[in-house]
Specification:
- There is one protein chain.
- The chain is mostly helical and 251 residues long.
- The protein has one domain.
- 64% of the residues lie in helices and 0% in strands.
- It is built from 18 helices and no strands.
- Helix 1 packs antiparallel against helix 4.
- The longest helix has 17 residues.
- The protein is globular and about 45 Å long.
- It starts with a helix and ends in a 7-residue tail after the last helix.
Length: 251
């Protein structure tokens, strides 16, 4: 293990604030458009996950080079000219289409995160790693096969919890499934969320991927290489029912 990894592992993360997370979730359930609360939850439950993730990154093949370069992904993923180069069937084309259909941008997500955590833009390596995870959120939507409906968001954050160990993802996944179950008892939300967590555990570790190279790969080939299983239980819920669920997270 490198000296940098050892030193990072000795850092103590901010204390967990479960009450603050519960309060933020309460505000979110009262106003589904108050998407800032998602970032409040993530901040309250970050703990040492960022420290551990960065330490793991620099110990993976190619991860040290990625960390040394500190490439910022939000400007790249928001560049329409860069995204236009990817042909049909590629990860890049699927991401481009996903973002267009959902009227999203990586820079838009970055702007929202700054409202609750101005320090996210600091030059520190751990702030950079936090930005990296934030900016690939919608890429993980595409890779994992989960949409941006309420159930899809609960599933993708559960997938992300397995990948990152960030308790904020786990909290949002379980709380989202609980809300969906209250709204639509016939939707097997907890079953879908558990499967998403399992898919995330079995998959290759996505934070260490070179995303600019990944975007050139055929989507299905990339999923096979990364051992990402199909979201069977999520897709078992008819699309019209998924679209009708009112709870909608902006994670």
């Amino acid at each position: 293990m490198s000296d940098a990894a050892v030193s990072v592992r000795h850092f103590k993360g901010p204390p967990l604030q479960p009450l603050k997370a519960l309060q933020a979730f309460g505000r979110l359930t009262r106003n589904k458009e108050d998407t800032i609360q998602v970032f409040e939850i993530m901040r309250a439950l970050a703990g040492r996950s960022t420290f551990k993730g960065y330490a793991r990154l620099i110990c993976t093949p190619g991860g040290g080079e990625i960390a040394y370069a500190r490439r910022e992904l939000a400007p790249v993923l928001s560049d329409p000219n860069w995204l236009a180069q990817f042909g049909p069937g590629t990860v890049g084309e699927a991401y481009r289409r996903f973002m267009q259909e959902e009227d999203l941008s990586a820079e838009g997500l970055a702007m929202q995160s700054r409202m609750t955590e101005p320090a996210i833009d600091e030059p520190h390596v751990l702030a950079w790693y936090g930005r990296r995870l934030r900016d690939v959120h919608d890429v993980w939507h595409v890779l994992s096969g989960y949409g941006r409906d309420a159930l899809g968001e609960a599933c993708v954050v559960s997938f992300s919890y397995a990948q990152t160990g960030h308790k904020g993802f786990g909290f949002i996944g379980v709380a989202g499934a609980w809300e969906i179950s209250r709204e639509a008892p016939k939707v097997r939300a907890f079953s879908a969320v558990r499967e998403a967590f399992g898919n995330g555990r079995r998959a290759s570790w996505l934070p260490s991927e070179n995303y600019e190279v990944l975007f050139t790969e055929p989507l299905e080939a990339a999923r096979r290489r990364l051992n990402i299983s199909p979201p069977t239980r999520y897709l078992a819920v008819p699309e019209e029912i998924r679209r009708g669920l009112k709870l909608r997270s902006a994670a």
